[in-house]
Design a protein that fits this description.
Organism: Nocardia caishijiensis
Structural class: alpha/beta
Mean pLDDT: 95
Largest sheet: 6 strands, mixed
Number of helices: 11
Radius of gyration: 19 Å
CATH topology of the largest domain: 2-enoyl-CoA Hydratase, Chain A, domain 1
CATH class of the largest domain: Alpha Beta
Order of helices and strands: EEHEHHEEHEEHHEHEHHHH
Strand order of the largest sheet: 1-2-3-4-6-9
CATH superfamily of the largest domain: 2-enoyl-CoA Hydratase, Chain A, domain 1
Shape: globular
Pfam families: ECH_1
Strand content: 5-15%
GO molecular function, one term: isomerase activity
Keywords: Isomerase
Helix content: 40-55%
Number of domains: 2
Distance between the termini: 32 Å
InterPro entries: ClpP/crotonase-like_dom_sf (IPR029045), Enoyl-CoA_hydra/iso (IPR001753), Enoyl-CoA_hydra_C (IPR014748)
Length: 257
């Protein structure tokens, strides 16, 4: 498995951690991922985020934290780089799929929360991990987690440093679905690849609607949905989808602009 960002069959593969240093977050890969996300082209229809090793990501490398001469400055730099990556994921106009095998702890859990779809297995476990080392969340967890599980449950998870098993994670909405442990990467790739032949313009518009909905009133969201579906109807993607339905054929979104 390549660790550097690579595009295969329309899917941008981003590795965030490797077996080195116990599958802790690899910031060279994070920086490379941010750069790749900032230069997406029409070839890319989805993003797949994964870890190479026993875990999706075990969080930051705490030994590096301890070795830093100025720990505050060191963590400030790492959080800035991580947050650039999270912003790039949020801004991606295509679906982001995470293959969550093994542990997703600390920043690893934050990146699970940042994905559009997260696939896990029976052995998948999530944990904030910040209280255990006397630190506070990064990677957007204090923003995404309450929006996924609710404010009260997010408080409990963060403050008690809860270990969340696979079934509970799925029930809470942290994981989208569960498959066999040895099928997590395969299923996540299958889902990501499926998006590459789908209505990309519609996916982009859907992500925009979902992103703005937490801060919008119902009236504002209804107006946004009205304007979005009207705009979609006049795009080549929308025309192909409707025309294919009427003709009783499968739409071919690959031929649209």
């Amino acid at each position: 498995m390549s660790s550097e960002p690579v595009v295969i069959d329309g899917v941008l593969h981003l590795t965030i951690a490797t077996a080195a240093a116990g599958t802790s977050l690899d910031f060279d890969l994070i920086d490379a991922g941010t750069a790749a996300l900032g230069s997406l082209d029409a070839e890319i229809g989805a993003v797949l985020v994964t870890g190479a090793g026993a875990n999706f990501c075990a969080g930051g490398n705490v030994r590096h934290f301890a070795d830093a001469e100025d720990r505050g400055a060191f963590l400030h730099d790492l959080a800035t780089r991580l947050h650039d990556f999270v912003r790039a994921l949020a801004d991606a106009p295509v679906p982001v799929v995470a293959a969550v095998h093994g542990w997703a702890a600390g920043a690893g859990m934050s990146l699970v929360c940042a994905a559009d779809i997260a696939i896990g297995g029976p052995s998948t476990k999530l944990r904030p991990a910040y209280p255990g080392i006397g630190l506070t969340p990064d990677g957007g967890m204090s923003w995404t987690l309450p929006r996924i599980v609710g404010v009260s449950r997010a408080r409990e998870i963060l403050l008690t440093d809860a270990v969340i098993g696979a079934e509970q994670a799925q029930q809470l909405g942290l994981l989208s679905r569960l498959v066999a442990d040895d099928e997590v990467r395969t299923e996540a790739l299958r889902v990501a690849t499926g998006f590459t032949t789908g209505p990309r313009a519609a996916y982009t518009a859907m992500k925009k609607l979902l992103a703005q909905s937490p801060s919008a009133t119902l009236d504002q969201q209804l107006d946004a949905e009205r304007d979005s579906i009207a705009a979609a109807a006049n795009t080549s993607t929308g025309r192909e989808g409707v025309d294919a339905f009427v003709a009783k054929r499968k739409p071919d979104y690959r031929k649209v602009d």
